[in-house]
Amino acid sequence: MKPFIHEDFLLGNKTASRLYHQYAENMPVIDFHCHLPPSMIADDMQFVNLTRAWLEGDHYKWRAMRTNGIDEKYCTGSVPDTDKFLKWAETVPFTVGNPLYHWTHLELARYFDIFELLSPATAVAIYDKASAMLQAREFSIRSLLLKMKVEVVCTTDDPADTLEHHKRLKGSFEIPVYPTFRPDNAVKTEDPAKFKSYIIKLGEAVAKEIRSFSDLIEALDNRHRFFHEMGARVSDHGLDRFYFDQFTETEADKIFKKLLRGSLLSVEETEKYRAAVMTEICRMNSKRGWTQQFHVGAMRNNNTRMFRQMGPDTGWDSIGPSQDALRMSKFLSNLDEKGELAKTILYNLNPADNEMMITMAGNFNDGSTPGKFQYGPAWWFLDQKYGMEKHLKDLSALGLLRRFVGMVTDSRSFLSYPRHEYFRRLVCNFVGKEVEKGLIPDDDGLLKPLIEGVSYRNAKEYFGFGE
Fold first, then answer.
1. Which terminal CB of the chain, N or C, has fewer other CB atoms within 10 Å?
2. Which residues of the chain have pLDDT under 50?
3. Domains and CATH numbers, the chain
């Protein structure tokens, strides 16, 4: 009997199979957005068991376990690792239809050569085998990245970060690990006390007290330059939406000082301040020739009680309302008008925004760079079979699939790299179906660069890491 994960998994016809195995399967990976801890790569750490490698920090799995009625102590508590794994194995059969079922079995197959289905009946044997394998040097974190043919890793880092682990990695590891500038804390104004603490931390990073809006922008630019010297060529912005309002530097300074005094901002002040900071950061991105990424549309930390107890990124987030296309347009157009619009990738979390986002990107492609303004890969809750298929259909119809920069892991787990394989198989299946319907020519001169481009080459050319 054919195993669930087999050579033509997700490939629905002969053309799809041929495209995948000839042109996508062996391509390297450029992971231009992830949340992997650089300290663990620098230390070339090894996981003591499969639970630590697979469940620690993985809020996708935690959400599924909670939904399945599993007590929180088995997700984030201090119960033994074996007990946590057994509760995950108990949940896995209930994830049928969810991408977690596919990802789980792809990861077992690709890292551990395990093709059995994970269930309570197989849990102990799978746990023992994988945990034993993780003790070997060929399963150290650096070895795992090499095993998955990773060519570049871009982590996600706060401007105040020392980047000490990136410094350690320079010249000590054959895979470049670059920082990504993520200045979200500079626009988180909901809690003035937390905001002030962050501004003090940022000031310590530049050895200067930040007292004014101009001091803030100078400090951010100082760190942006430092990140550039460390190889960074990408910024990332996790916003609920785009902000836009007309502002003056005097207004921005007044609002900033109000925040430092511990006062809450009005709705209008919040809009002006966030628009001002984001405009200045985008100017930095343009000045240094970076690519900027906007991840918009998440409603974060919905469960106030659990957020207070556990903090962010622990599984209490959801899809937010549709984006304000008018503010997005005005924000981007304002930068474009001044010649300060950098290469940009847009990610949406609400699928209702697909078509709007793709056509918005088309508004700012000016012919200066192929695919300068990109519609990014399906993200977070859309990072699954149906979300990716809709993404590919929408992008093909309204943009240029051939220029698409492809997939990211967007993960904190070192076992997430088969997501690139998952994506490539879905791309090949999508294109293969269109070929067999007679909607795309069955011409390898056309198909080879399309598949290789979306799998790897477009990202390599677009970002130019190391150049």
1. N
2. none
3. 48-139 (1.10.2020.10)
